[in-house]
Write a structure and sequence with these properties.
With 242 residues, this protein is of the alpha/beta class. 33% of the residues lie in helices and 27% in strands.
Length: 242
């Protein structure tokens, strides 16, 4: 019986010694070697924002202890950038900090105080425009705050459904008015939608696609001035240029 107790006691002593040794090794690795020092910041998912700009926002210089870097604080700093929508930050204990970002996707151009700004699908301002942005995004004018959210949701749906005519890039301007949505194409065709639900707008746009496809096939698009999808319901009223 005493032999068994002695063996158990020895096992506890050995286990305790091993644990102590592991802790000593860990402390040594953490505090007295460069194994866990920040050596590199890897950035993925950036397109418009440079890697250098992102690293500058983290305020990290290199050489910091990885375990002391607050990932949540790094994320908070990066989310303050107007072009960043989502951020994931992770440590790689080979001395690497990995940052994965998702940039806000521009949807349209909003004119404010005589300046043009790119806005996303929520209507949030991303940045000032460049001259070439007019080639890819329509100018939006908001006169009806009640339908604003639905309006941007619909534009986002339209931008991501490029199989329908006219394609999103065909629009020079889109106006959310008190009684209608007015699309103005780059070749100056005006298209009216009534103020209804998003699903009804989608239905009407699919109907518009059929109308425009027919007009293209008949080589009539250059002669069109106005297409009204608001009267009567489900049909198109077309006005030709005089």
């Amino acid at each position: 019986m005493q032999l068994i107790k002695k063996l158990v006691k020895n096992q506890f002593f050995i286990c305790g010694s091993i644990i102590s040794l592991i802790l000593i090794i860990l402390v040594y690795l953490l505090y007295f070697t460069d194994l866990f020092l920040l050596k590199e910041i890897v950035v993925v998912g950036n397109n418009k924002i440079s890697k250098e700009e992102i690293i500058k926002l983290t305020e990290l210089k290199g050489g910091e202890r990885l375990y002391r870097i607050s990932l949540s604080k790094i994320r908070e700093k990066l989310l303050k950038h107007p072009r960043i929508e989502e951020v994931l930050v992770a440590r790689n204990f080979l001395g690497i900090l990995e940052i994965k970002i998702k940039e806000k996707e521009p949807l349209a151009i909003l004119i404010k105080d005589n300046k043009g700004f790119l806005v996303n699908k929520k209507g949030d301002i991303i940045s000032e425009i460049l001259p070439e942005d007019y080639l890819f995004y329509p100018v939006v004018e908001i006169k009806n705050e009640e339908f604003k959210e639905n309006f941007f949701n619909f534009l986002n749906w339209l931008k991501n459904n490029k199989s329908y005519l006219p394609v999103y890039e065909s629009f020079a301007k889109v106006i959310l008015d008190n009684e209608s949505i007015l699309f103005i194409t780059k070749n100056n065709i005006k298209i009216y939608f009534p103020l209804i639900t998003e699903k009804d707008w989608q239905f009407l746009y699919k109907s518009l696609d059929k109308v425009v496809t027919y007009l293209y096939e008949k080589q009539l698009m250059d002669k069109i001035e106005v297409i009204r999808m608001d009267y009567p319901w489900g049909k198109a009223l077309i006005k030709f240029r005089s």
